[in-house]
Every structure is written in structure tokens, then in C-alpha cells.
Amino acid sequence: MSTWVWASPCDDATVAALAPRVAAWGFDVLELPVEQLGDWDPARTATVLGDLGLGASVCLVMPPGRELVAADAATVRATQDYLRGVLDAAAAVGAPAIAGPAYTSVGRTWRMSDAERRAAYEQLRENLAPVVEHAAQVGVRIGVEPLNRYETSLLNTIDQTLEALDGLPPEHIGLGLDTYHQNIEEQDPAAATRRAAGRIVHVQVCANDRGAPGADHLDWPGFLDALSDAGYSGPVCIESFTAENATIATAASIWRPLADSQDALATEGLAFLRGLAVT
């Protein structure tokens, strides 16, 4: 369960307030976004989660100014430093992976010819390589998340992301999948998921409108079957957002409530997914 359902940014107070509730509802993992390094203290967070028997996953965040492609050297270095810091935080809380659009800032789009796209992917591999080396050192994998066409022009589909990551070590970097983006961009989300077999690092889920899984038209049994066929056995994390926080509501285009309450979004989504897992 992502803390973004209730708050942004995630800080120590957010973790202290939400972790007991999430554990009591029956979740296994709390997802912790890192909007800025130091928003939450990794050692303190590890203690809070450990006392509750919760695991952790960590979400990287790419606001304007974080770029690994078509950017000046100083910006690239700062972005690499941020990503290394996120990896360190994940290692400290025992998270097996970090996930997010680790390539350009969300909302940055531009037109590319085929040759320009290939060059951008090559540049991405070069600039990710030292971050991947750090991932190997701390024992945390990187999940690169394709986003929908309105949020990026670089990586929209699973196939594009596989192409962009080709040559980087799959034991340390792969894909982060998100059903919200797949519903927009993939002609057949289940088939695309199967094509990512062995490369899926992390999975985020929500309804097609970012509401609770199950309160929508998505083929959830088909998607979960595809994850199983692809060999994925990690957490499936509900990620949505609150309309009550002006910053995150604007960033994620959340203009109305997506469930009766944020708590209902979490608990109803969990009940639906657990029911599918049982059947």
C-alpha cells in the first residue's frame, strides 16, 4: 500500500501514523515514496515497520529537474546522486527494489525520430550504468516504469522499456509495471506483461481511473495470471493519490474522490485482490 493514497510528501509522521493502520488491515508491505532525500529517516522507518511485521518497497520520484536524458552533465550527476540515495534508503529499510520513471521528469515530452529515440535509449543506458553499479553494491534492484503518453514521450510501453534497458544486467535492473499506464498504452496488457518475463522488478496497481482495484473494467484475473506466467513473485502494491493534497492532486490529475474514502480505496482494493488470489 502506497502512502501517497493519504499524504505527500511521506515523512516520519506519515509513516508513524499509517504503518499501524496498514498492518491492521492486513497489508504486507508499505510503499514509501522518496520525493526528496531525507523526507523520512530510514533507520527510524525500519524500526517502525519491523515492529509491525511490515515489509517495505520504495518509489523514486522524478519532478522537473531530474533527468538522465537530453540534459546537461550537472543535472545528470545530480539525478544519479538522487537515485543512489534512494537505493541507500531502500537498502536501509530492507526493500528489495526501487521503482519509478528513472529516465526523465514526469510531464516532459518531445518528438523524436527513430534515430533520435535510439540515441536517447543509448544515453539512458550510459547514464543508468553507474546507478546500476550502486544497486548491485547495496543489493537493491531498480524497476524502470513506463508511463503513459501524457506524462512522458520516452518510455510508454513494456517493449520500449525492454529495448531501452537491453544490455544492462537484468539481475540489477528491470521493469516496474503500473496497471494505470498499461491500461492506456498496451494493446494487450497481459501479453505485454508476459513478454517481460524475468525482468519484472516491481508492480503497482489501481483501477483504470486510479481508484480501488476491482472497481473498474480491467481484466484482473488475466493480469495476475500473466504476472504468474512471467515469474513475478514480489509485492503487488496499490498506488493511488488523494485529492485533498493540492500538490499531488495537480501532479497526478486527481480532481475528484476516487472512492468513498481513502481508507475504503485501500481496504476494498485489498479485499478484491486477496479474493482473486484465493480463487
Question: How does this model look, in words?
Answer:
This protein has helices at residues 12-25, 42-52, 73-93, 114-138, 158-165, 179-185, 189-195, 220-229, 246-252, 262-278; strands at 29-34, 55-60, 97-100, 141-144, 173-178, 200-205, 236-238. The chain is an alpha/beta fold. The mean pLDDT is 96. A 7-stranded parallel β-sheet has the order 1-2-3-4-5-6-7. It is globular, with a radius of gyration of 18 Å. The relative contact order is 0.12. α1 packs parallel to α2, α3 runs parallel beside α4 and α7 packs parallel to α8.
Distance between the termini: 22 Å
Main sheet overview: 7 strands, parallel
Low-pLDDT regions? none
Q: Identify the overall geometry.
A: globular
Determine the mean pLDDT: 96
Structural class: alpha/beta
Per-chain topology:
Layout: H1 12-25, E1 29-34, H2 42-52, E2 55-60, H3 73-93, E3 97-100, H4 114-138, E4 141-144, H5 158-165, E5 173-178, H6 179-185, H7 189-195, E6 200-205, H8 220-229, E7 236-238, H9 246-252, H10 262-278
Parallel strand pairs: 1-2, 2-3, 3-4, 4-5, 5-6, 6-7
Helix pairs in contact: 1-2, 2-3, 3-4, 7-8
